[in-house]
Amino acid sequence: MDLVPVILSGGVGSRLWPVSREMHPKPFIQLPDGQNLIQKTFLRACRLPGVSEILTVTNRELFFKTQDEYKAIEGADCAQSFILEPFGRNTAAAIAIGALKLAESHGPEAQMLVLAADHLIQAEDAFADAVAKASQLAADGWLVTFGILPHYPETGFGYIQTRSDTALGHGLKVERFVEKPDLATAEGYLAAGGYYWNSGMFCFRVGTLLEQLGQHAPEVLEAAAAAIERSDISTGKRHRSLNLDPAHFAKVPDISIDYALMERSDRVATVPCDIGWSDIGSWIAMSELTAPDNDGNRLEGEVLTHASTNNFVHSCERLTALVGVQDLVVVDTPDAVLVAHKDHTQDVRHIVKQLKSHGHSAHLLHRTVNRPWGSYTTLEEGDRFKIKRIVVKPKASLSLQMHHHRSEHWIVVSGMARVVNDDRELMLNSNESTFISAGHRHRLENPGVIDLVLIEVQSGDYLGEDDIVRFEDVYGRATS
Amino acid sequence: MDLVPVILSGGVGSRLWPVSREMHPKPFIQLPDGQNLIQKTFLRACRLPGVSEILTVTNRELFFKTQDEYKAIEGADCAQSFILEPFGRNTAAAIAIGALKLAESHGPEAQMLVLAADHLIQAEDAFADAVAKASQLAADGWLVTFGILPHYPETGFGYIQTRSDTALGHGLKVERFVEKPDLATAEGYLAAGGYYWNSGMFCFRVGTLLEQLGQHAPEVLEAAAAAIERSDISTGKRHRSLNLDPAHFAKVPDISIDYALMERSDRVATVPCDIGWSDIGSWIAMSELTAPDNDGNRLEGEVLTHASTNNFVHSCERLTALVGVQDLVVVDTPDAVLVAHKDHTQDVRHIVKQLKSHGHSAHLLHRTVNRPWGSYTTLEEGDRFKIKRIVVKPKASLSLQMHHHRSEHWIVVSGMARVVNDDRELMLNSNESTFISAGHRHRLENPGVIDLVLIEVQSGDYLGEDDIVRFEDVYGRATS
């Protein structure tokens, strides 16, 4: 029997702004130990006994970035497959499409272990143990959830109520799912016992899941099958991917798997577990990953304090100074800084809403933007000029392109560049430069084995990213 | 009788860090209306009846910057003279040297009006009125202080106690100077009446001042005279300046004019006045120059708030977001951000002390550094490269120079550059570039009438500012 972890990578995590952005969502936020949540999830899944392939469901804009993150992990050599969504469509769609694809490739006896890309699980052995139990229940035809033993009356999660009279050997039958409670209700749950946090992780036998979906949510299953049929499949050296067709994917109902299936089925069980789980749902949860100093301050980066206690500071590149303050969260990024009270970190998403409604790019992008070939960082913009640092990965190449309104100076600061500039092809070593006139076709490529770092100074009347004509693109963007 | 305002421009204003830095001290901080404190002081002094010349005492490193600030003021065409200090040496030294120079140029009947460069005076007519009264008292041989009518029991200032039985027509005789009081004492002063804040502004007849200094502080007067004798005088088209010799200036006792003279003399009077005076001694004082919104937030720059009240935010270039916070001061600059409680803004100087003791440059410089010819801003530094934006003022020129360890790419983004590059001289228009090899002599000059803006990309093994050999320099720095 094959067990295939299915990593759902959706959601921005807007409560972790300004580090999270739409194009740099929560699974990609680096933790103090240097790894990010999606890397940790991939590695944890890959280490489970019997796992040889991992299916990731993610937004297509994050495909290359996700592959890069997986590639950067040491000691995780699972095969990778991807389902690429043109936009988010809730969990029922992702899970149904995943199940249909796994039925095709692995048969109905295969099991899928649904994991969120942005949760932290610190007790890995206990997690593996819980998965083994869930797998046995799934083999018996149960739809299995993972019920997290609650240590305090959290009001931000839904709860799973179990029936203690129906132990199933490795778990408990689920009585019902309950919505996020108020504090008194949550305290009642803890006092009563038999209630667990709904972690959003699942284990299903593929055949059971499809049968149950057909019974309780046939409209999801049918639309999912139709979307797959109209979608493109591509196979690379290291991965297979299904690129979902937007028009057909949009027809899959926008509903969670909890509403669509789990709350309707009577075949639902839970494996109670205590696995050091956190959804890193706010800056408070993030701050707990950094040890406090003698004043209770948890400080990342270059920070000076005076008469300040119990604060959390995350400072990337600049100096942060605290004077006479308590219980604050200060998060500094190159283009935005957040100052929040610890009791209000859930409200950070209101800032993101304001940014969206103002059309401000700070909810969407960081100053550094990732591309399939590497990244660029805008260092400065002014009247008629823009300066970028461009990093091109070894063997990677930008498209053959042309700009109508801007010319570009390129100066190599490290690595080696192969450049097409109009009708010439040249090699630039570090400290060499070239000038690309407006209207000239050009291409930038890193033929070497270390990163190519290049400073680009653009000048012209119009410097928008949309002044680009792509002639050839190895990433399939020539027509976009 | 000549009245010569003497502007004392010393002190960093470290409580206004991170906007104030040693090389960008408090007089240069821009207020919300766009002018800075030294400009306001110069303009206010220049508008006084009978004033045709202003003497500024400042650190020699701030000479060019101060001239630039004066030049940028509309409608202030007083003659400028300067006394340039190699380091700060307290007020007695500055005032004694100023008096000796004025005695030489204007004779003993001339009056000096001593003003701080970093105070704000919002009632200009009342100020002019107080100066007229002080001038009459000074003509009668009094050493005149300006006593600010206290509106609340401030504990951060010294007080002047007057004798109400000795009205002098335009002022009051001073009974004694008292140190910064505690709150109860300050409240007692206000209740008793006859106490005024010591503003640190003075009006003296030059002859009287020298005679009184000779009597009460002869060691100051003698050392001041000796320092002048050993110093260089230079005369430009728009100014005269006395560049004090460091060794002899160091021999002038480091003492305030209050201790050296005012507290010892029995010829001291005060002109009580109510002139909208503030020493802008902290971020609280600065915040009061910005009107509050409906939530009591005083916001400068791009700021978003949620559930936050009574905060002050000064944000230069980036987005600042506040969530659920009260009574904070947040000051954002390109390389450092301060988060302080309003009750602790006096303690900001402790951060500056920490920076100094760590040898951190953030107490000294901004990311933008002023030079006689314009300014440069470090946009990015990395391994073996550094990127600067360089702004050269019209008709200004950098020195003819050479670097041993770095080469430089120059790209003009606006304006016109005249460049010496080894044995060539060339003109670069915007969007043109040149490459300066390590070891080549070069010079950059702006022959035009608008600012020249240039991006410099340096590369090499060593990129320190001290890798420079200057051959010719219009600012006299070739040997430094």
UniProtKB/TrEMBL annotation, chains A, B:
It catalyses: alpha-D-mannose 1-phosphate + GTP + H(+) = GDP-alpha-D-mannose + diphosphate. SUPFAM superfamilies: Nucleotide-diphospho-sugar transferases, RmlC-like cupins. Residues 5-290 form the Nucleotidyl transferase domain. It holds the Pfam family MannoseP_isomer. It is an enzyme of class 2 (transferase). Pathway: Nucleotide-sugar biosynthesis; GDP-alpha-D-mannose biosynthesis; GDP-alpha-D-mannose from alpha-D-mannose 1-phosphate (GTP route): step 1/1. Its EC number is 2.7.7.13. Residues 360-473 form the Mannose-6-phosphate isomerase type II C-terminal domain. One of its GO terms (molecular function) is mannose-6-phosphate isomerase activity. Residues 306-355 form the MannoseP isomerase/GMP-like beta-helix domain. Signal peptide: none annotated. The keyword ATP-binding does not apply. Keywords: GTP-binding, Isomerase, Nucleotide-binding, Nucleotidyltransferase, Transferase. NCBIfam families: GMP_PMI (TIGR01479). Belongs to the mannose-6-phosphate isomerase type 2 family. This is mannose-1-phosphate guanylyltransferase. It comes from Stutzerimonas azotifigens. The lineage of its organism: Bacteria, Pseudomonadati, Pseudomonadota, Gammaproteobacteria, Pseudomonadales.
